[in-house]
């Protein structure tokens, strides 16, 4: 690991550090012997039992929009900030667009202001999503040089606004900003729920013997990236100087059809219930999402592996280990269709 000594003894702020990616990032930073890892998370889409328990991890139950919460965490004078906090995700933002904008844009702007005022930030890493940059009018596989304003949901729009703010603060205030555009992350640490991603929801339903819902048709496909590779890309983006001032895809470049994913999860969980077809959501206009990772390989010197079979095994094992907590916290609202984010 080229960054093996870089994060040692540093004070690091991870917003959204209790979430699926955040908790894995925090765990890796703790193993790298970071001096102090500060988590700021309001637990709106995460659980306190999911936070890694290390002596150098300090958790604040707070909100990036709240001045007092920001003062509390910046009082510790972090030098590296990983910004993962967000109002997640597409269907949630369609249902609550004003909240999505408030958290993902206004909250982001406040955080950047505090970084500039603090005056000692060595690196600010922002996690955008592929949908916060690329639309149905972009060429596949998606390359960083081509972006779109025809974005499918308020979540995507607000995430792209966050990236635009990053470039302003980078250019105007010389804030050392890195931006990673994450493709479909999955792995241990993500609790299923009404507004969560497709894989944890599929696993949860399959373990309960329920048919897995497919929205649209069998041609829908995505680029799935195991969470350990997501974390690796984020850490490398915070380390390599060449990663500042430019967006970088964290993608495998490999296509997985959602119906094949459902069949594989049913097989691995011995679920005989099969699948069922639901109407495609209005905001979900892209049948295929695949990223080009040439820039990741060139600048970050690594490429995420296409390891869906092994990755699913590790994720299912995490579900079994944490079954009681997951069943208690999985939130699906009565009367609503499953809102799978893919």
Structure summary:
The chain is of the alpha/beta class and 342 residues long. The protein has 11 helices and 13 strands. Strand 1, helix 1 (20-31) and strand 2 form a beta-alpha-beta unit.
How large is the count of helical segments? 11
CATH level 1 name of the largest domain: Alpha Beta
Rg, nearest Å = 19 Å
Could you give the order of strands across the largest sheet?
3-2-1-4-5-6-11
Gross morphology? globular
SSE class: alpha/beta
Number of strand elements? 13
Report the β-strand fraction as a percent range.
Answer: 15-25%
CATH homologous superfamily identity of the largest domain: NAD(P)-binding Rossmann-like Domain
Q: Which regions contain 5 or more consecutive residues with pLDDT less than 50?
A: none
CATH topology of the largest domain: Rossmann fold
Q: How confident is the prediction overall: mean pLDDT?
A: 94
- N-to-C SSE string, H for helix and E for strand: EHEEHEHHEHEEHEEEHEEHEHHH
Distance between the termini: 31 Å
Main sheet characteristics: 7 strands, parallel
- The CATH level-2 architecture of the largest domain is identified as 3-Layer(aba) Sandwich
């Amino acid at each position: 690991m080229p960054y093996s000594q870089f994060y040692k003894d540093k004070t690091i702020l991870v917003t959204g550090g209790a979430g699926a990616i955040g908790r894995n990032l925090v765990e890796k930073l703790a193993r790298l012997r970071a001096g102090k890892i500060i988590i700021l998370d309001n637990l709106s889409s995460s659980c306190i039992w999911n936070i890694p328990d290390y002596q150098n991890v300090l958790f604040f139950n707070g909100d990036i929009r709240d001045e007092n919460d920001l003062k509390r965490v910046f009082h510790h004078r972090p030098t590296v900030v990983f910004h993962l906090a967000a109002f997640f995700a597409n269907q949630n933002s369609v249902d609550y667009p004003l909240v999505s904008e408030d958290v993902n844009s206004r909250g982001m702007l406040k955080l950047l202001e505090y970084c500039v005022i603090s005056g000692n930030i060595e690196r600010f890493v922002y996690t955008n999503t592929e949908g916060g940059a690329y639309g149905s009018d972009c060429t596949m596989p998606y390359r960083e040089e081509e972006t779109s304003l025809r974005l499918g949901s308020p979540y995507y729009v607000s995430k792209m606004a966050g990236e635009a703010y990053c470039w302003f603060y980078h250019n105007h205030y010389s804030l050392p900003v890195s931006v990673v555009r994450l493709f479909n992350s999955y792995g241990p640490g993500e609790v299923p729920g009404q507004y969560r991603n497709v894989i944890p929801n599929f696993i949860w339903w399959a373990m309960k013997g329920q048919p897995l819902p497919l929205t649209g048709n069998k041609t829908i496909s995505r680029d799935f990236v195991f969470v350990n590779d997501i974390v690796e890309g984020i850490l490398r983006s915070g380390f390599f100087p060449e990663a500042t001032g430019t967006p970088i895809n964290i993608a495998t470049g490999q296509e997985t059809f959602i119906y094949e994913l459902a069949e594989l999860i049913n097989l691995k969980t011995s679920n005989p219930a099969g699948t069922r077809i639901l109407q495609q959501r209005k905001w979900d206009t892209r049948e295929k999402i695949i990223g080009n990772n040439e820039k990741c390989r060139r600048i970050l010197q690594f490429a995420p592996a296409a390891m869906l079979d092994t990755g699913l095994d590790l994720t299912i094992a995490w579900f079994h280990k944490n079954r009681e907590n997951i069943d208690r916290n999985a939130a699906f609202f009565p009367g609503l269709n499953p809102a799978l984010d893919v």
